[in-house]
From TrEMBL:
Residues 1-61, 66-128 form the CBS domain. PANTHER family: DTDP-4-AMINO-4,6-DIDEOXYGALACTOSE TRANSAMINASE, TRANSAMINASE. SMART domains: CBS. Keywords: Aminotransferase, CBS domain, Pyridoxal phosphate, Transferase. Gene3D superfamilies: Aspartate Aminotransferase, domain 1 (3.90.1150.10), CBS-domain (3.10.580.10), Type I PLP-dependent aspartate aminotransferase-like (Major domain) (3.40.640.10). The keyword Transferase applies. Signal peptide: none annotated. This is Aminotransferase class I/II-fold pyridoxal phosphate-dependent enzyme. It comes from the Bacteria.
Length: 501
């Protein structure tokens, strides 16, 4: 509910019955909040209360505070959606006011919201997936190989302008194989962006190697060239250059490759581009994922296109991709009997899922347009809230806005973000903090970390002050309006925002 509609629900205790009825009709919410002069909730008045008062023959002039009724059912700001729903069920009511610690109403939760969850990023099928999957069934290609796998590889490679592709069971599997292809051995070090999902760097541990984490830069939220320079200088001084650098392209936006790649080239260290979140994005006219020696995409269920689960490894070097296919099918040597000379994996994508992927790939460009439109709608609708800073998209970048993300500026941003996400959760709106950086994860507590500038930990700041909003290409305008209205309700009251206006 937006702040104006919410304010319209407040009435004074002396408001006469007939005026309250008119107000109730005007708001169309079936509920008024009777508040004292300090704004504290005294009671609620529902359609039913007013109708019963009429039936009992109470005069139109009777003040609402004197209507028969019971103390209101309320929750406080820390209440979860489940607790609110339980209270609704217990008392058979459809709306519950939320009070702050001073007993003032700050929000109102409706039952219908609680049954219509808004997801962060849910799968969005096109029209051709079913036909491809049916074809796989009809032709009995229900295997981790088949014509859809081959075609999906060719089509992804063509889409991103890279020579070759290997379809795999997940993005994480693709990174694991990518590290092996680049020769990562036990005891090696691998540089990796710190601000990412753990799938980027768990494979470093699978290889028995040690991660070194690199901070983000404020301009792209991706790997900081300054931090990368310092990490390389440190590694060289130790006589231990990393075996490779994993550069992550977050939230549908490429890292600043023109600044990062020459540094890696200078030290002769190859780049594995983790483009799991950035299929469809472009940087200086080229596809995200076309810059590294190898790159990886994910088709996990929340990605811009999905195969329900899957990944793709791409490279211009055909021998690398052929080797990825070999390793992903248990490293079987070409012999009639099963012959093995090295460790392999069961990492191949199935022909059925590749069929879904082919259908999805046909709508990729449409999905980019839709996700960008979702972002633009948020940005325009909330343009007058100065505490909100959107993830930047620098010149030369064309992001997909896979997720719309923003940070809150000002003091206590972390607490304010948490309060905002808690209140969204209470309304069944899924929002997430920006990734918790890997250097802050207990799993990687011992790993070295290089900040953007000394004393300036950008990724930590983004984590503490950043929020990802529901961003799916299938988010309806009505759902987005619900998110926008709720953000307004909370942020217009945010003290820092008010001070900045
Ligand atoms: C940046 C990043 N890297 C790697 C992965 C791993 O991909 P998957 O889930 O397909 O294993 C993901 C997402 O899931 C991701 O967001």
């Amino acid at each position: 509910m937006n702040p104006t509609d919410f304010q319209a629900l407040m009435v004074a205790p002396e408001q006469p019955l007939h005026e309250a009825l008119r107000r109730l009709d005007g708001t169309g919410r079936g509920l008024l909040l009777v508040v004292d002069p300090e704004g504290r909730l005294l009671r609620t008045v529902t359609d039913g209360d007013l109708r019963r008062a009429r039936l009992q023959g109470l005069p139109d002039s009777v003040p609402v505070s004197q209507l028969p009724g019971h103390p209101p059912h309320v929750v406080y700001e820390d209440a979860t959606a489940a607790a609110v729903l339980a209270l609704m069920d217990q008392h058979q009511i459809d709306h519950i006011p939320v009070l702050d610690a001073t007993q003032r109403p700050v929000d109102l939760v409706f039952r219908r919201e609680l049954t219509q969850r808004i997801w962060l990023s849910s799968p969005h099928l096109g029209e051709e997936e079913t036909a491809f999957v049916e074809e796989a069934f009809r032709t009995n290609w229900i295997a981790p190989l088949g014509p859809h796998v081959d075609a999906f590889e060719r089509e992804v490679a063509a889409e991103v302008g890279v020579g070759h592709a290997a379809a795999l069971s997940s993005g994480t599997a693709a990174i694991h194989l990518g590290l092996q292809l680049l020769g990562v051995q036990p005891g090696d070090t691998v540089f990796c962006s710190s601000l990412t999902f753990v799938g980027s760097c768990n494979p470093i541990l699978y290889c028995g190697a040690r991660p070194v984490f690199i901070d983000s830069e404020p301009a792209t939220w991706n790997m900081s060239p300054a931090a990368l320079e310092r990490a390389f200088a440190w590694a060289q001084a130790q006589g231990r250059l990393p075996r490779c650098v994993i550069i992550v392209n977050l939230y549908g936006q490429s890292a600043d490759m023109d600044a990062l790649l020459p540094i890696c080239e200078h030290y002769g260290v190859p780049v594995l581009e983790d483009a799991a979140e950035s299929l469809g994005a472009r940087y200086k006219g080229r596809a995200s994922g076309s810059f590294g020696h190898l790159a990886v995409y994910s088709f996990n269920g929340n990605k811009i296109i999905t195969t329900s689960g899957g990944g793709m490894l791409v490279a211009n070097d055909p021998t690398l991709v052929a080797r990825a296919r070999h390793l992903s099918t248990q490293a079987r040597e070409p012999a009639r009997h099963y012959e093995h000379t090295e460790v392999g994996y069961n990492y191949r994508m199935s022909n059925v899922l590749a069929g879904i992927g082919r259908g999805q790939l046909r709508v990729l460009q449409q999905r980019v347009i839709q996700r960008r439109a979702v972002f633009e709608r948020y940005r325009d609708a909330l343009a007058d809230l100065p505490a909100v800073r959107w993830m930047p998209e620098p010149e030369g970048h064309h992001a997909t806005r896979w997720l719309t993300c923003f940070t809150l500026v000002g003091p206590r941003a972390s607490q304010r973000c948490n309060a905002l996400m808690r209140s969204m959760e209470r309304h069944q709106i899924e929002a997430r903090p920006v990734w918790k950086p890997m250097h802050l994860q207990p799993l990687f507590a011992a790993a070295p970390y290089f900040e953007h500038a000394l004393g300036h930990d950008v990724s930590r700041q983004l984590f503490e002050t950043g929020i990802c909003l529901p961003s799916g290409s299938n988010l309806s305008p009505e759902q987005q309006d619900r998110v926008i209205a709720h953000l307004r309700l909370v942020l217009e009251k945010d003290e820092v925002n008010r001070a900045l206006v």
